[in-house]
């Protein structure tokens, strides 16, 4: 399975992290009723702009499995859910909601 991790400002806004274009180490796990994303970013200046918009971020995970349509998972990170540790070079995002969708399953009704 191939996976792409995106962090964007709002839904149609610009991408701050896009592992499809610029790979960075990350992991994500479901813990109780939320999802925790941990991203390794060693240089604080690389995420300075992201942190300005930390209360308006959306997180996306696109999962591509051979011979299946791409599954897109959209997570919402709310207030006070984004933190950066300069000591660890680690960005943490906690999402409290998600929507899973497969674009190929949607069709226009005429």
Task: List descriptors.
110 residues, mainly beta, Pnp Oxidase, Chain A, 5-stranded antiparallel sheet, 4-stranded antiparallel sheet, 1 helix, 9 strands, globular, Phage tail protein
What do you see in this structure?
With 110 residues, the chain is mostly beta strands. The chain has 1 helix and 9 strands, in the order E-E-E-E-H-E-E-E-E-E. It has one helix at residues 48-52; strands at 2-9, 15-18, 26-31, 34-40, 57-64, 71-77, 82-85, 90-95, 97-101. The chain has a 5-stranded antiparallel beta sheet with strand order 2-1-5-6-9, with no helix packed on it. Strands 3-4-8-7 form a 4-stranded antiparallel beta sheet, with no helix packed on it. The protein is globular and about 40 Å long. The model has no long low-confidence stretch (mean pLDDT 89).
Secondary-structure map:
Elements: E1 2-9, E2 15-18, E3 26-31, E4 34-40, H1 48-52, E5 57-64, E6 71-77, E7 82-85, E8 90-95, E9 97-101
Protein name: Phage tail protein
Organism: Paenibacillus marchantiophytorum
